[in-house]
Design brief:
Elements lengths: L1 H26 L9 E7 L3 E2 L4 E2 L3 E8 L3 H32 L5 H17 L4 H58 L10 H15 L4 E5 L5 E5 L3 E5 L2 E2 L1 E6 L7 E7 L2 E5 L7 H36 L20 E4 L14 E6 L9 E7 L2 E7 L3 E6 L7 E5 L2 E6 L7 E5 L24 E5 L8 E7 L1 H5 L6 E6 L14 E3 L7 E4 L5 E4 L3 E2 L5 E4 L2 E6 L7 E6 L8 H7 L14 H41 L3 H36 L1
Antiparallel strand pairs: 1-4, 2-3, 5-6, 6-7, 7-8, 9-10, 10-11, 12-19, 13-18, 14-15, 14-19, 15-16, 17-18, 20-29, 21-28, 22-23, 22-29, 23-26, 24-25, 24-27, 27-28
Helix pairs in contact: 1-10, 2-4, 2-5, 2-6, 2-9, 3-4, 3-8, 4-5, 4-6, 6-9
């Protein structure tokens, strides 16, 4: 009877274990990362009785955990990708809303500024119109400053996100390594795996992938080896490695991520850590935030450059040449903290940046490195070589790259590195330099006219000056004389109508409607509607003058009633300033808004697709590992009946044993 009792006992224990496991499944059904467990039974070793093998009951082979590593990897990959896209989307939506806002964006302020210029052109002598124009300029500056400040706040938020993500990654790495250690102690008993610890570890690995894409490989003693980036190990067995945040060596406002081994930290590029929240914000910063801030700065710098250039060609109410109207921010130059340090007698290399041609500006930053006796310049991102220059013995050199003049001084050392961001401060440092309405240079510096004694209909219909006029202006007044040509009288050929009186030594150009110049030589042929340029002065001649008619170009020091320069300033609204002379201020801003908007929608669509893919992967994983409460309820009944049946076997064994005892009495 002892064998029957023992058989019943094994069944009782097995049913009890199954009931406990089922209850464990039910109570943990809402625990993240929990995998369904099932008691796996097998027949106990049979007893050879001589007449044959007799069963001895059942035994528990293992508590099986239903987990598919392929499914787990699919979920981790989808989680990493989706978290990165969601992180990117959350950041870029801030810029999209900022730039596209019809009230707080740049467009209303820019339109108001140029409307103020147009109103002043119509009421030049009006002090209120001048004051309104100046106020609109201040409003434009405030708007640009505000937009840049908001982008700066977003950048600060990115830094905070980087710090918190690195902290989370390091925490998860330590916890996973600790679980590796605990799990490895059970490696000698593969039939008794620590299921709950395995679930905890898998869940931590999944949580880690919310912050950075992690590659998971099996290690020794049931441990996991986890690497990130370009193969940098994060967890190896019981050991974990740490990431660190540090200031960029060339830009102290920028946080970078480094990989720490002992006391040494190696900087990881933004692209080396894809996926997860960390990868998302790093990608956002390098592909959208940096570009948006530089583009906004480019618009500010381009406006200030062109406006100042035209304003300085005019005369103010005091008859003085116009002063710079807006501040033009110099480019940001960051010297690497790893550069060789200079001394008073032997200073370290210095790099300066300024804008010289807005039409050639790109949205790129630049890295300047002194190598093999030359300053070598590459664009960022992409690291495409764009120029190099060899300094003189004192370290001085100048190089113009994409509309940016880089000047070098002092003595460079091998490996000295600089980060140049030509327009990043353009919007932040944009401000109005004039605070007196009388200093607005509305008048042009020269006048064109014809003498009362002229008998023809010819006239100077337009006069303009350019920057060459400020450098070396020709002596005024200048008198041009029309010389009537003669018809052909064989054998003498015909002679053309000509203009004489151009300043000696000045090169004369004929300018077409597109502004293209063609050098011409004396005698200068007269053509109705033609524009002639010399010494920074351009005059357009129209009509039909008679021989001997004279035309004067004189100084306009009084500037009374003259609105030509303020009108020219107003024309900057539609002037093609950027992209090789193909884009206006407004179209450049519209393109910037469009790029951010399109990228936002692209990321939004990808994030939605990523969430769908993640849900699909999680569903497939749940089919394998998830707890089905209906199924578990059925199992409870099944195992309860098994428990009762096993109890009955033991009860019968006891009854038989009691009967045998009673016979012996």
């Amino acid at each position: 009877m002892s064998s029957l009792l023992a058989i019943g006992k094994t069944g009782l224990y097995a049913a009890q274990a199954a009931l406990s496991t089922t209850g464990h499944n039910i109570t943990n059904s809402n625990v993240a990362g929990y995998s369904r467990q099932v008691v796996v039974q097998q027949t106990a070793a049979a007893l050879n009785t001589g007449a044959g093998f007799m069963g001895t009951g059942t035994q528990i082979a293992q508590i099986k955990r239903y987990s598919d590593e392929f499914m787990n990897a699919q979920v981790r990959s989808a989680q990493s990708s989706t978290s990165g896209l969601e992180s990117y989307l959350g950041q870029i939506k801030q810029i999209d809303n900022l730039l596209a806002d019809t009230t707080s964006g740049l467009t209303p302020a820019m339109q108001g500024f140029f409307k103020g210029i147009q109103d002043m052109a119509a009421n030049r002598a009006s002090v209120p119109s001048r004051q309104a124009m100046l106020s609109n300029a201040e409003s434009l500056a405030t708007r640009l400053n505000g937009l840049d400040a908001r982008l700066g706040e977003i950048r600060d938020g990115v830094n905070s996100e980087i710090e918190s993500s690195v902290t989370a990654i390091n925490t998860y790495a330590k916890q996973i390594a600790k679980l590796n250690e605990q799990i490895s102690t059970f490696a000698s008993s593969p039939q008794r795996p620590p299921n709950d610890l395995l679930d905890q570890r898998d869940q931590l690995v999944l949580e880690l992938n919310k912050y950075v894409k992690a590659t998971v490989l099996p290690g020794d003693n049931s441990s996991l080896t986890i690497s990130i980036g370009n193969g940098q190990p994060l967890v190896v067995g019981q050991d974990s490695y740490q990431l660190a945040t540090m200031q960029s060596p060339t830009d102290l406002t920028r946080l970078e991520v480094g990989y720490q081994v002992g006391n040494k930290v190696s900087v990881l590029s933004d692209g080396a850590l894809p996926g997860g929240k960390l990868g998302g914000v790093l990608e956002f910063r390098s592909t959208t935030l940096d570009k948006a801030q530089s583009q906004l700065g480019k618009i500010a710098v381009g406006l200030a450059f062109e406006f100042n250039q035209q304003h300085e060609l005019g005369l103010d109410q005091n008859g003085q040449p116009g002063k710079p109207f807006f501040n033009i921010a110099p480019g940001f130059v960051g010297a690497s903290i790893n550069n060789a340090k200079g001394t008073v007698d032997d200073p370290a290399a210095v790099v300066k940046s300024k804008i010289v041609d807005p039409s050639k500006l790109s949205d790129n930053d630049y890295e300047v490195k002194f190598n093999d006796g030359k300053y070598q310049v590459v664009s960022l991102p992409g690291r495409q070589a764009v120029g190099s220059v060899e300094p003189d013995a004192d370290g001085n050199a100048t190089l113009v790259v994409n509309g940016v003049e880089l000047s070098f001084s002092e003595r460079p050392r091998q490996g000295d590195t600089f980060l140049v961001r030509p327009t990043i401060n353009g919007a932040a440092d944009f401000k109005v330099l004039i605070n007196d309405v009388s200093q607005i240079a509305a008048a042009a510096p020269i006048l064109g006219g014809d003498l009362p004694s002229n008998t023809g209909t010819g006239k100077i219909s337009e006069t303009k000056v350019d920057s060459d006029f400020l450098d070396t202006p020709p002596a005024l007044p200048i008198t041009l004389t029309f010389n009537k040509g003669t018809p052909a009288a064989p054998p003498a050929p015909a002679t053309p109508d000509t203009l004489t009186g151009f300043p000696a030594g000045e090169t004369i150009y004929k300018v077409d409607a597109k502004g293209n110049k063609t050098e011409i030589t004396a005698p200068v042929e007269f053509e109705n509607g033609a524009t002639y340029s010399f010494g920074g002065i351009s005059v357009t001649m129209t009509g039909a003058p008679n021989g001997g008619d004279r035309f004067t170009i004189s100084d306009n020091s009084s500037g009374v009633g003259d609105t030509r320069n303020i009108a020219a300033l107003g024309e900057l609204q539609t002037k093609n300033i950027f992209n090789g002379g193909t884009a206006t201020l407004q179209s450049s801003y519209a393109q910037m808004v469009s790029e951010v908007g399109n990228k936002t929608r692209e990321v939004q669509i990808n994030a939605a697709a990523g969430n769908a893919q993640l849900a699909q992967a999680q569903g497939a994983q749940a089919d394998v590992s998830g707890v089905n409460l209906d199924e578990e309820a059925t199992n409870l009944i099944k195992y309860q009946q098994a428990y009762q049946a096993a109890s009955k076997v033991m009860q019968i064994a006891g009854t038989i044993f009691d009967s045998l005892l009673s016979i012996s009495r």
